[in-house]
Fold this sequence. Notes:
- The chain has 475 residues and is mainly alpha-helical.
- It has two domains: 6-186, no CATH class; 191-276 and 355-474, no CATH class.
- The protein has 17 helices and no strands.
- The radius of gyration is 23 Å and the shape is globular.
Amino acid sequence: MLFNSLEFLLFLPIVFVLYWFVFKNQLRLQNILLLVASYVFYGWWDWRFLSLIILSTFLDYFVALSLQKTSNTFHRKLLLGLSLFGNLGMLGFFKYYNFFVSSWIAAWSTLGVTMEATTLNIILPVGISFYTFQTLSYTIDVYRKEMKPTHNFIDFAAFVTFFPQLVAGPIERASHLLPQFHVKRQFNYENAVLGCKLIVWGMFKKVVVADNCSYFVNKIFDNPEVFSSGELFLGMVFFAFQIYGDFSGYSDIAIGLSKLFGFDLMINFKFPYFSRDIAEFWRRWHISLSTWFRDYIYIPLGGSKGTIGLQIRNVMIIFLVSGFWHGANWTYVVWGLFHALLFLPLLLFNVNRSHLITKSYGWIDFAKISATFFIVCVGWVFFRADSIADAFQYLTHMFELKRLSLSLFYSTNANLMIFALSALAIMIVSFQELVWVINKREVPKLTSIGTLLLVLLIFFMGSFKNQMDFIYFQF
């Protein structure tokens, strides 16, 4: 079920009314309602894959309880291994099976060996990468004795399947979100208003920014060889705003929806395109994933401690794994490698934490922001391209600077209109976030008048003709 669909427009008020008016002050019934609603929300896409999320829920629920009952180191490691193998096994099969088979065949073909293998018609379950990491955080934290397991299965299942952030995050830690299912929740008017404002802001970024930009992005990336350098450059920039508007828009909507039901989710984006270097970018972009990798992979490996060789190894691992997490394509691995190579000099020269606190923004800061944004955009070409060869072809044609024509964007009245809408939407988002950055805000803060204007802009500028999935549904 899409947030920007008619079904969700009917689904949300029904759940809201039942939650606050029918089951008011009945915590157990509210949690049961959230669990059922989440199963309906997820099953609306394909009910068959509910079995996977239910299996993952049962697995980690009983593994965690078993971890509490034993202090034997071998048994505890065995139980943790069972959780890792079960969850990552399902993720690996559905997401990477065909990728590994085709890569294996391609590797042998370079040596002149012809192999044949039957790949399966595997459908990737929506959100499997997100809920797998969310439930794993619970098992790992219980294994580390950083939290105690819950004995309430309903609460745990509701935590795993919480519909606002189920399919595209933020990837919540059990230590943060799960305890919120245990305590009585009171309706808070101010919180609900803030939630509605975040939903509107997120919807604006999705249907006005991302979906309008996608019209040109798809045209350009599908046939980059026929477009000018100027059109390729603009296509690259448009994709940067498409993926940001799409993904951060989802996160804003998810956080806003959670506030309507009395829950607090972590901030997933902090205006990342105003970062002054790659290290700051990764402190501001998809924070729930980057901190997950930091706490459960990077730090256990040694982090930034140890020899230079170990530091380089750890950075390479974390970025390559992050790239591979995004999808079964070598383009994502190269995208991760690209960011690793950009991050390493900052780490080795001990300047990767130079921009933790900013007293003010000057011209030098904005020069750094522009340079970082351009570098990030170049990386997005690998992320968006169908293959590594396509990405290099795109960049080669773009940097040739042979033709700077932008005729695609005004070749027809329809193209000119969509281009104008996209450019205006990008300017609105950029200006608004610049104001927040200068005022040192970490989260959006909209006035009531501003929110009303956004509603009108969504109505008049939104791309509603074809409902588009959120980009991160594929991950």
